Amino acid sequence: MSTNNSGDSKIFDAVVVGNGTLGLSLGLELARRGVQVAVLGKASRPFAASAVAGAMNGCFGEATPGLLQSEHGRTKLAMDVRATALWNDWEQSIIEASDERVIRSAEGTIIILNTIGVPEIDTAGYASIRAALDEYDEPYEDLDPDQIDWLAPEPTSRPMKAMFIPNEHAVDSAALLRGLATAFVRAGGTLIDEQAVEVLVDNGRATGVVLESTDVVSAPSVVLAAGVASGDLLGCLPPDVRARIPAIVSGYGVALLLETEDSTAPDHVIRTPNRAFACGLHVVPRGDGTIYLGATNNISTQPRTSARIDDLNLLLGSTRQMRSDLVEGAVHRIMVGNRPVPLDGFPLLGEVGIDGLWMMTGTYRDGLHQSPLIAKDFAARLLGEEHDTTLDVFTPVRKPIQALSRQDCLETAVRHTLALGYEQDWGIPVDWPPLIEEQLRGMFQRSLDELHPTFVPPAELLAFDDPEITAALSAYYRAHDEAS
Fold it and tell me: Which residues are in the FAD dependent oxidoreductase domain (predicted)?
């Protein structure tokens, strides 16, 4: 694989900042269409989400009550459904253009509803998954939980219900990234193993970027697809424009790569519904008796590269929900990733206040799955072709999107925070949870009231109660108040 990293000035038709799944997918799509394109980013991907993702082609398995009741949430679900239809051909095209022989790591997904968690989240989530499957007439079948191969949880964690979704798979994220990079270079694209530190603008139009080495990469189209780092490159914008773009925080997560004691792994993804602000407990086979166990989710203003002990404790304790003998396995790797989470919880897709500067990020947990869809759409946008106008609702300079009412946001924050305790099998007196719930509701209500009289943040940003995030939300809301 060739890499351009010379000290000379470089001139391209387009430059994509970010070498994760989204950035490489757009680069590949453009290169295949004859565009001279460079993709920038350190090969080590220090803060990437896709490099350590479980890489589930999660679509219906991600459905929740909040997603289905929101217009913008349903738009995201529709994007997931369209992306699913692209994946077979997309994966095959990458295999044919690279040295990868296999990218898919699991065939189909089993959803389990077990005795961990709370009905308002887990049972409601399970019902939402079925409702979404029925609405889209997607095939699935109910399973006898006791007859699921490989699954052998402790009795206190046994599943009560289960269903199989045959068209929701998973890929090996490392193989996918290798395949994308190889296919991109072979299609004529250029990889540059450096970070961008500044976007250049001349007469109201983006003209390229400055690299860490001070080299300049020139292009009339600059696409920011650098995940949590994308917002750091918006200093070129007028302050009033930048203030009306939701800042990006990190939804950092921890996952484990495990070798099972008997060297076996399931053929399918096995997962719970989304729970406690995270994407549910999930096991994804990775071959040779190794499994990916994920994942936690915490909101932070800064990306992380190391795992917190409490995240590891949560994951290690959750092994009992899948197989009681996983405690006898071996931990091959502790993985930490940073999901890009805009302050209103929805993607940032479109031009950014000046000609030629685009954002293609903020996809939270959906970016890898949606990558073929978003890449094809952005290629069309950059080339001035017909594109999917339904994605225009996620234009970066926008009024805050509100998926939940104030009351729903408050109740979601309370329920999910309490669910963290139940998920970790907290041992407290039986009369304490109502007292804790009352205290949480009062605390979150005060935070909501202090933030803004009408704007409502995503529930997880309210629940994590970080002063820096609160300040960022206040500034974002204030900018829109002043603009209106």
Answer: 13-380
